[in-house]
């Protein structure tokens, strides 16, 4: 390979840059967090020896277990709601005239490009005690007293659904786009009714999109601490709030790091489940 | 099959998606002090915004940061995509794995790990730490955008240029860069917007020496409803929308 020798300087420079960046800013930091989670808290230097598993034990403290479960619950409800709203939406979207689809997809990603904090604030405006929903209902005479909408679990879930819905719809739309109309028609021709066709043809074929959408909604839903901060008040915390508080307010790094590792493990588990299910589906299809 | 049912449903969901944004924009022109009762048209909140020195400073800081982060991440991201497409090297799966990890891991995990790194190497939190962090989370998006453009590009064209005596750098500059130009622009715009919008990572890695816009908004919206936020939100909306239209236009024109 004569050309290889000439290629080396440029190629080496490129590879060096890319490797150094990713090792220094992705691999090393993650290793540091795992290391931190195994150390002891120090009031002055943040961290000190000895190595310990105490931080992970503290995560089992009923207080934190409750926060984690509550966060999991809110993320799960958010995911289910996004799926319930998003599935028929993506289905309907894939059936629209091609010329309109481009515009409709564009309208779907516009919010993704607008500041998510500003959109969270917009939700707050609607839900506040003297906000538009309450004053609207009051002037219509539906209610006497303003409903307590803000600083509730419901408010956090509304905020999360609002911010994350496009992430559910886009992968679902992709699978509905690929769904062969012939297969659905074949199912009907063979005498299957609407419900059996839906359950045995449409659902299995769109399952990869469902799983991708669930991942894209569920994972961020546990970390978006600002949504819980702005809409949830003190009682409706997400895992993200716990991590943030430990790092920035309580200054208990080892414990915050342990919570972060836990979140990463949860993510890894879900991703593995995703790959596993895809492989199984692939085998069935083959 | 009835056709109006799916369409009504689509319209309904779009309505729900856009009502909050619409309310935000309309009330940014509200003359009343309260953020929820209409008191006539006025630009007073925009005025208040631009009279606020700290706010204007934060805007400039955010713009500079986004410009720098988008530029650096486009450069490194394009080179990464190029390396993945063109070169064979050891550890390629690991490189792809790391990019995947950045994209899939919750933002807060990335934020925590970067904070740990910066404090351990003793880097002062400020512009540099923000830049390093923003470039890192923008990187995979640029790599994906550029890789999509490179897919299907025949490497033999590059070999031909090499055989005719061009150096590797010349080949990349004169053959490859024109091909990926639209992807570079789209990736740059994406990086710019991601950087401008980021709250989670910035909360962790910014210092008092360099205040940026999302954090300023954050401190404002936590305490209550502030009409200035409506004005600011509207400006950001118009800005991002322009960027989005621009990138779509570039991509559509290049695909023709």
Secondary structure layout:
The complex is a heterodimer of chains A (286) and B (256).
Chain A (H helix, E strand, L loop, with lengths): L1 H36 L2 E3 L3 E3 L5 H6 L2 H34 L2 H16 L2 H12 L4 H8 L13 H26 L2 H9 L4 H30 L1 H8 L6 H11 L3 H33 L1
Antiparallel strand pairs in A: 1-2
Helix pairs in contact in A: 1-12, 3-7, 3-9, 5-7, 5-10, 7-9, 7-10, 8-9, 9-12, 10-11, 11-12
Chain B lengths: L3 H25 L15 H8 L1 H34 L5 H13 L2 H14 L6 H24 L4 H9 L4 H30 L2 H6 L7 H11 L3 H29 L1
Helix pairs in contact in B: 1-11, 2-11, 3-6, 3-8, 4-6, 6-8, 7-8, 8-11
Task: Walk me through this protein's architecture.
- The complex is a heterodimer of chains A (286) and B (256).
- Helices cover 80% and strands 2% of the residues of chain A.
- Chain A has helices spanning 2-37, 54-59, 62-95, 98-113, 116-127, 132-139, 153-178, 181-189, 194-223, 225-232, 239-249, 253-285, and strands at 40-42, 46-48.
- The two termini of chain A are 40 Å apart.
- Helix content of chain B is 79%, strand content 0%.
- The chains are: A mainly alpha (286), B mainly alpha (256).
- Chains A and B meet through helix 1, helix 3, helix 4, helix 5 and helix 9 of A and helix 1, helix 3, helix 4, helix 5 and helix 6 of B.
For the largest beta sheet of chain A, what order do the strands appear in spatially? Answer: 1-2
* Alpha-beta content class of chain A: mainly alpha
What is the count of distinct domains of chain A? 1
| Broad shape of chain B | globular
> Describe the biggest sheet of chain A?
2 strands, antiparallel
Strand content of chain B: under 5%
Secondary-structure-based class of chain B equals: mainly alpha
The best one-word shape of chain A is globular
Q: Taking all residues together, what is the mean pLDDT of chain A?
A: 82
**Can you count the helices of chain B?**
11
Total E-strand runs of chain B: 0
CATH superfamily of chain A: MetI-like
Helix content of chain B: over 70%
């Amino acid at each position: 390979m004569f050309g290889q020798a000439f290629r080396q300087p440029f190629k080496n420079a490129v590879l060096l840059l890319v490797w150094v960046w990713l090792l220094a800013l992705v691999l090393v930091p993650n290793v540091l967090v795992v290391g931190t989670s195994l150390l002891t808290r120090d009031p002055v230097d943040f961290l000190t020896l000895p190595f310990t598993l105490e931080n992970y034990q503290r995560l089992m403290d009923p207080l934190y277990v409750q926060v984690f479960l509550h966060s999991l619950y809110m993320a799960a409800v958010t995911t289910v709601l996004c799926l319930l709203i998003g599935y028929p939406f993506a289905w309907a979207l894939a059936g629209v005239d091609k010329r309109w689809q481009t515009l409709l997809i564009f309208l779907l990603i516009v919010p993704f490009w607008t500041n998510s904090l500003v959109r969270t604030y917009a939700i707050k405006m609607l839900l506040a005690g003297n906000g538009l929903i309450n004053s609207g209902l009051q002037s219509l005479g539906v209610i006497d007293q303003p409903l307590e909408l803000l600083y509730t679990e419901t408010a956090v879930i509304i905020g999360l659904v609002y911010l994350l819905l496009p992430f559910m719809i886009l992968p679902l739309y992709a699978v509905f786009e690929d769904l062969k109309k012939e297969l659905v028609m074949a199912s009907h021709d063979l005498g299957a009714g609407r419900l059996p066709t839906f359950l045995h043809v449409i659902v299995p074929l769109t399952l990869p999109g469902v799983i991708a959408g669930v991942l894209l909604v569920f994972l961020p839903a546990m970390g978006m601490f600002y949504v819980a901060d702005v809409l949830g008040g003190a009682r409706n915390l997400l895992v993200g709030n716990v991590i943030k508080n430990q790092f920035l307010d309580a200054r208990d790094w080892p414990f915050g790091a342990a919570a972060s590792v836990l979140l990463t493990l949860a993510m890894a588990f879900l991703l593995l489940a995703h790959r596993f299910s895809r492989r199984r589906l692939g085998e069935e299809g083959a | 099959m009835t056709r109006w049912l799916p369409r009504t449903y689509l319209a309904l969901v779009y309505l729900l998606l856009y009502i909050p944004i619409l309310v935000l924009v309309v009330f940014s022109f509200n003359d009343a002090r309260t953020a929820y009762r209409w008191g006539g048209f006025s630009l007073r909140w925009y005025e208040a915004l631009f009279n606020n020195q700290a706010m204007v400073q934060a805007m400039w800081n955010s713009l500079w940061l986004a410009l720098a982060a988008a530029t650096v991440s486009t450069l490194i991201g394009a080179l990464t995509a190029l390396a993945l497409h063109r070169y064979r090297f050891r550890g390629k799966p690991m490189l792809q794995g790391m990019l995947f990890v950045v994209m899939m891991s919750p933002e807060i995990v990335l934020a925590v790990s970067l904070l740990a790194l910066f404090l351990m190497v003793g880097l002062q939190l400020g512009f540099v730490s923000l830049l390093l962090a923003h470039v890192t989370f923008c990187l995979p998006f640029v790599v994906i955008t550029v890789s999509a453009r490179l897919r299907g590009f025949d490497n033999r064209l590059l070999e031909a240029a090499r055989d005719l005596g061009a150096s590797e750098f010349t080949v990349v500059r004169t053959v490859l860069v024109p091909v990926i130009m639209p992807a570079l622009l789209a990736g740059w715009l994406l990086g710019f917007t991601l950087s401008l919008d980021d709250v989670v990572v910035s909360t962790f890695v910014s210092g008092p020496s360099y205040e940026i816009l999302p954090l300023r908004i954050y401190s404002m919206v936590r305490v209550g409803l502030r009409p200035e936020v409506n004005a600011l939100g509207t400006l950001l909306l118009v800005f991002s929308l322009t960027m989005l239209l621009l990138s779509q236009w570039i991509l559509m024109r290049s695909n023709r």
